[in-house]
UniProtKB/TrEMBL annotation:
Top class in the EC scheme: hydrolase
First and last residue of the signal peptide: none
SUPFAM superfamilies: FMT C-terminal domain-like (SSF50486)
Organism whose genome encodes this protein: Lacibacter sediminis
Name of the protein in question: Putative 3-methyladenine DNA glycosylase
Taxonomic placement: Bacteria, Pseudomonadati, Bacteroidota, Chitinophagia, Chitinophagales
Keywords for the protein's UniProt record, in alphabetical order: DNA damage, DNA repair, Hydrolase
Stated family: Belongs to the DNA glycosylase MPG family.
Transmembrane segments: none
GO molecular function: alkylbase DNA N-glycosylase activity; DNA binding
Length: 208
């Protein structure tokens, strides 16, 4: 597998990046333990124009400042005081787009993931939902700001010819964003077990 280059993240179309991330891989190496997950579900957040984004209306805080920096770094925040949610920072400096990784298919280091979940046997809950993505891969808020070409965490693509059907729907859990909550900014691989089980799946639109 080859690491994604910085220019992959520097594009100004966060929706296209969210789609392009499907099928790519996240690799982490913490404490000599390597885990790999294939991305199966994403959500795009369009920076300062997007009411669902933490950076909406140019909101700059200690937490969101990383979003205003260079592309190709991690943005990890705590949700409900429990879940560490992993995002990919996109676009260019001062244009704080990001993609939330909502689901991964475990590929390598599954025994490590099982220990992190305190499970003996793998099931579809490992890597399903953004909190479980970070838990499976060992990612936490202490990793926010890490370049995604580092030795600890990176994203990659392989040369295998793979095909899958992509569906799109509104994002999950952003009702506070008003009409922006209806934007079709969530993308996922059809019928994949690690995709969030949600009512929106039944009305999702097929892209290809």
């Amino acid at each position: 597998m080859q690491k994604l280059r910085t220019d992959f993240y520097e594009r100004d179309d966060v929706v296209q990046i969210a789609k392009d991330l499907l099928g790519k891989y996240i690799i982490t190496k913490f404490d000599q333990q390597t885990t790999v997950g294939r991305i199966v579900e994403t959500e795009a957040y369009a920076g300062i124009i997007d009411k669902a984004s933490h950076a909406y209306n140019n909101r700059r805080t200690a937490r969101t400042e990383v979003m205003f920096g260079p592309a190709g770094v991690s943005y990890v925040y705590l949700c409900y005081g429990i879940h560490h949610l992993f995002n990919v920072v996109c676009n260019v400096k001062d244009k704080p787009d990001a993609v939330l990784i909502r689901g991964i298919e475990p590929v390598e280091g599954i025994n490590v993931m099982l220990r992190r979940f305190n499970k003996e046997k793998a099931d579809s809950s490992i890597g399903r939902g953004p909190g479980n993505v970070s838990k499976a891969l060992g990612i936490s808020t202490k990793h926010t700001g890490l370049p995604l070409q580092s030795k600890e965490i990176w994203l990659a693509a392989d040369n295998a010819a793979t095909s899958f059907n992509i569906l799109t729907s509104p994002r999950i859990g952003v009702d506070y964003a008003g009409d922006h909550a209806q934007w079709l900014y969530r993308f996922f691989i059809k019928n994949h077990p690690q995709v969030s089980k949600h009512a929106l799946n039944k009305t999702a639109i097929s892209l290809f």
